[in-house]
């Protein structure tokens, strides 16, 4: 399959590498236009999967690295558009991801459930269960910041 990604100027696409070199061969081609940078990643399976397909719905094939060229011109969220082209099946719809950009040395982003007892009883009672969540970032200097207002949660079901 072929994976295409497009980012705005100021976000650089550094590299794409295979997650499992025994299973996949990955070749990357980068293009830098005026307003956007693009990459085309050709992923080709070189060996049959050693895992049982029923164990997981998704398999990681490729990892991509991005770089911010200048923090002064970029802040907040930056979009990345994705599209996949499968052999004999055609091209998928364009998908949008957003990455949050800040000039801090973050070492982690952690969701914290604000309830001491988490038990999903929805399957037993048929009632939706909502648990408040706080999201914090942890910087390299151990500073902790509440970023809950900048985060949104969605469920596919």
Automatic annotation (TrEMBL):
<feature type="domain" description="Transmembrane protein TMEM132 cohesin-like">
    <location>
        <begin position="1"/>
        <end position="106"/>
    </location>
</feature>
<dbReference type="Pfam" id="PF23039">
    <property type="entry name" value="TMEM132_3rd"/>
</dbReference>
<keyword id="KW-0812">Transmembrane</keyword>
<dbReference type="InterPro" id="IPR026307">
    <property type="entry name" value="TMEM132"/>
</dbReference>
<protein>
    <submittedName>
        <fullName>Transmembrane protein 132C</fullName>
    </submittedName>
</protein>
<dbReference type="InterPro" id="IPR055421">
    <property type="entry name" value="TMEM132_3rd"/>
</dbReference>
<feature type="domain" description="Transmembrane protein family 132 fourth">
    <location>
        <begin position="108"/>
        <end position="157"/>
    </location>
</feature>
<keyword id="KW-0472">Membrane</keyword>
<dbReference type="InterPro" id="IPR031437">
    <property type="entry name" value="Ig_TMEM132_4th"/>
</dbReference>
<dbReference type="Pfam" id="PF16070">
    <property type="entry name" value="Ig_TMEM132_4th"/>
</dbReference>
């Amino acid at each position: 399959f072929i994976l295409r990604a497009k980012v705005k100027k100021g976000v650089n696409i550094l590299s794409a590498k295979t997650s499992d070199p025994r299973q996949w061969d990955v070749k990357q081609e980068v293009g830098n236009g005026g307003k956007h940078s693009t990459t085309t990643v050709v992923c080709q399976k070189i060996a049959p999967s050693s895992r049982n397909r029923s164990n997981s719905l998704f398999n990681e094939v490729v990892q991509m690295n991005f770089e911010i060229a200048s923090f002064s011109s970029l802040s907040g969220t930056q979009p990345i558009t994705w599209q996949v082209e499968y052999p004999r099946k055609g091209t998928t719809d364009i998908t949008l991801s957003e990455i949050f950009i800040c000039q801090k040395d973050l070492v982690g982003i952690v969701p914290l459930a604000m309830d001491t007892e988490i038990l999903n009883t929805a399957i037993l009672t048929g009632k939706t269960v909502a648990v408040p969540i706080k999201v914090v970032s942890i910087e390299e200097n151990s500073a902790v910041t509440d970023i809950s207002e900048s985060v949104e949660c969605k469920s596919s079901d």
